[in-house]
Structure formats: C-alpha cells, structure tokens
Amino acid sequence: MNDKPVTLREHRPGDMGWIVHRQAILYNREFGWNEEYEALTLRILADFLDHYDPERERCWIAEREGEIVGSVFIVKHPERAGVAKLRMLYVEPSARGLGIGARLVRAVTDFARAKGYHTLTLWTNSVLVSARRIYEAEGYRLVGEEKNHIFGQELVSQSWEMSL
C-alpha cells in the first residue's frame, strides 16, 4: 500500500467539509480535542472560501488512489504585508511516514516564494510533534509559545516563522 503514488491537487467542492470532519475526528482520538477545535477549523475554512484569492492563496489536497490522505493551506496574513500563513496541515494516519506532510509543506514554501512572499508563519501546538519536526526541517524557527486552555486541554501554543 505504501508504494501507491500520491498526487497533490487544488481543492474542489466538498473538500472543506471532509477536512473539518477528518481533523475533528483525528485530533479528538489522538489528543482529546473537543468541538472548540472543530469550530476553529470551520471558521478558518469558511474564511478561506469566502476570501479566496487564487493568485496569492492555495489549498493542496493529497490523494492516493482517489482517497484524500492529507491537506494544507496557504493564506495571506491579514495584517502583515508580504507574509503568508501556512494553515491546517494534516495527514491521515494510514499515510503517515510516507513524506506526504513534508511534500505538502514544501508545496507551501515553493508557492510562497513564487508569489513573492518574504515570510511564512504558522501557529501550532507542541503536542503535534511530527508536524513540528517537518516545520523545523523546512526551515521554520520557533518565535513564541504560550500555555493556554484550548480545545478542552492544557496546551502549549506555538508560533513559527520562516524567512524566504
């Protein structure tokens, strides 16, 4: 199964609902996150669709044999000119360890460079260890962290940035 090719494509109708559904289920199972996380993902993806600028923003869907196995987004930072945000990286458990996460993050980096962004930023939580390893390998550096109670858990939120 691991030798099946993975393709990246742009989003299409139905993908956003799938992403919210899968992330809510997976992060609840893996970390006990509650519906606050689902609400956040709904807001992020609704904002993406409502304000989508195809010249400066993108969603990549990773597929293997017609099944969605991951996704990631890049959006313009609302307050910082020349800065983009990497959002909502996830890879299905059945596809983890195949380099899909790194490939999705690299797609964001390449797109950001091609579009003239000078900085990429992202927000994550310290419990997402595999994702954090991918970000660090890509060149992101931790610029801040904060303890808080979100998604029904005590978490350490982190901000990461990368200069392009």
Structural class of the helices, strands and pairings? alpha+beta
Query: Distance between the terminal alpha carbons, to the nearest Å?
Result: 35 Å
**How can the largest sheet be summarized?**
7 strands, mixed
Helix content: 25-40%
How would you write the strand order of the largest sheet?
1-2-3-4-5-7-6
Radius of gyration, taken over Cα atoms and rounded to an integer in Å: 15 Å
Number of DSSP helices?
4
The rough form would be described as globular
Overall average pLDDT: 96
Order of helices and strands: EHHEEEHEHEE
Instruction: List low-confidence stretches.
Output: none
* Count of distinct strands: 7
Fraction of residues in β-strands: 35-45%
Structure description:
The protein is of the alpha+beta class and 164 residues long. It is built from four helices and seven strands, in the order E-H-H-E-E-E-H-E-H-E-E. A hairpin with a 6-residue loop joins strand 3 (67-76) and strand 4. Helix 1 (15-31) packs antiparallel against helix 2 and helix 3 (100-114) crosses helix 4. The longest helix has 17 residues, at 15-31. It starts with 5 loop residues before the first strand and ends with a strand. The model has no long low-confidence stretch (mean pLDDT 96).
